[in-house]
Specification:
Layout: H1 9-12, H2 19-23, H3 32-51, E1 72-75, E2 82-84, E3 95-99, E4 105-110, H4 113-116, H5 123-137, H6 141-144, H7 150-157, H8 159-167, H9 169-174, E5 207-210, H10 216-224, E6 229-232, H11 242-253, E7 261-264, H12 271-286, E8 293-296, E9 303-306, H13 311-314, H14 318-333, H15 353-369
Parallel strand pairs: 5-6, 6-7
Antiparallel strand pairs: 1-2, 3-4, 3-5, 8-9
The structure holds zinc ion.
Zinc ion is lined by residues 122, 124-125, 214-215, 217-218.
Length: 379
């Protein structure tokens, strides 16, 4: 028995239709230059994961069998216990990358579940929260402080908007920029970014690349943040197409927040999308007969034997790592963009594909110097 209530506007169109009509997306059509652009960002994201790889989901000691023989360092003295590279497990090998309308990388983040002993520290939700926080960091103090000395404001004014622009090119330049106070006559109105407001549209031109299809939490956060597109590079069947359904329901409302447009990796020819899906399925089938892990539970001290085919276990295996490694190599082996001068026609300061490629390699080099699975920020 169900309890009657009015059908929400976003669902009216689908109320009496098959679930497939609600859950399936129409295919996106991309120009060849757009496919290249998406591929470069996707290879960058996979390169980040490859560089920060840690497959020790159940700890660095124990037996991961053939699944991780390529990550085996050796045996512990005397005990015959295998030890694997990677050290302490911080979270799953799942990451997300945010790119603005001009094609500038804003930031990346990883899944941090293990760091926080939590099931909700997912890459996309962490990244979105960080993007909002970054926006606040880059607000200059003199836009907030009525009594700030004018001279100091003058010194800083040339620098801070430039910094901010580099982080939030799209959102910052979209805003109207009234001075908050009339105290700084020598500062041009258009040179001073205003304090945080209009945050509801801040990410409206941001694309998030995520290595694994988003869950309900992350789809919800990206919807509330008005993220434009979400590109996912492996599907997660456990998430029951929630991103698709949210897109359709919110777009159908004609008002309020709209969920990001989902884009699958294979829609722009990213071969690793299919590779990961296939290998993950094979893993789920075979792990029943060949345990992913046998060893001691770090918390209970009991012997454990893991035979469940979870995608996060798959994302620790040699086969998964090989996929990320190949994508990383693809990025490094691109000598030039195939469409070097291509860029979105309606975005004046957009990076060309060649600039996107140069940026991607620079960004990867920078991340390789970081010891963390995230950029160093104060938030
Ligand atoms: Zn999630």
């Amino acid at each position: 028995m169900t309890i009657d209530r009015p059908v929400p506007p976003g669902l009216q169109r689908y109320w009496n239709s098959p679930v497939a009509q609600f859950a399936q997306m129409e295919c996106n059509d991309f120009e060849p230059w757009e496919k290249e652009r998406h591929s470069i960002f996707s290879e960058l994201l996979f390169g980040l994961i490859y560089d920060k790889w840690n497959g020790n989901k159940y700890g660095p000691l124990g037996d991961y069998g053939n699944w991780r023989s390529g990550q085996l360092i050796g045996k512990c003295d005397g005990e015959g216990v295998s030890i694997y590279e990677g050290g302490t497990y911080l979270g799953h090998n799942i990451a997300a990358l945010a790119v603005d309308r001009e094609g500038r990388v804003i930031d990346f983040d990883f899944n941090h579940n293990a760091v926080f002993d939590s099931t909700v520290e997912h890459a996309e939700s962490r990244l979105v929260r960080r993007l909002f926080a970054l926006n606040q960091i880059y607000d200059p103090w003199y836009a907030l402080e009525r009594e700030a000395p004018a001279l100091r404001a003058e010194i800083l004014h040339a620098e801070r908007p430039r910094q901010r622009r580099s982080v939030f090119a799209t959102a910052a330049s979209d805003r109207s920029v009234p001075l908050r106070t009339g105290s700084y006559p020598m500062i041009q109105n258009d040179a001073v970014p205003q304090a945080p407001q209009e945050y509801s549209t801040l990410l409206k031109d941001v694309t998030i690349y995520t290595s694994l299809e988003s869950c309900a939490q992350c789809s919800g956060i990206m919807c509330l943040a008005s993220v434009k597109d979400v590109v996912y590079l492996q599907w997660d069947q456990g998430q029951f197409l929630i991103g698709n359904m949210m897109r359709k329901a919110t777009a159908g409302q004609g008002a309020g927040f709209v969920s990001p447009r989902p884009i699958r990796g294979d829609e722009f020819g990213f071969q690793y999308f299919n590779d990961l899906n296939r290998l993950s399925e094979e893993f789920s089938r075979n792990v029943k007969y060949e345990p992913f892990y046998e060893g001691v539970d770090r918390i209970t001290g009991q012997d454990i034997r893991i035979t469940s085919g979870s995608v996060t276990s798959f994302l620790c295996t040699d086969e998964a790592r090989n996929v990320f490694s190949r994508a990383h190599a693809d990025l490094m082996n691109r000598s030039h963009a195939e469409f070097p001068d291509a860029k979105p026609a309606d975005v004046p300061n957009a990076f060309t594909n060649e600039q996107v490629l140069i940026q991607a390699r620079d960004y990867l080099s920078w991340v390789k110097m970081l010891n963390n699975r995230g950029a160093a920020h104060r938030v």
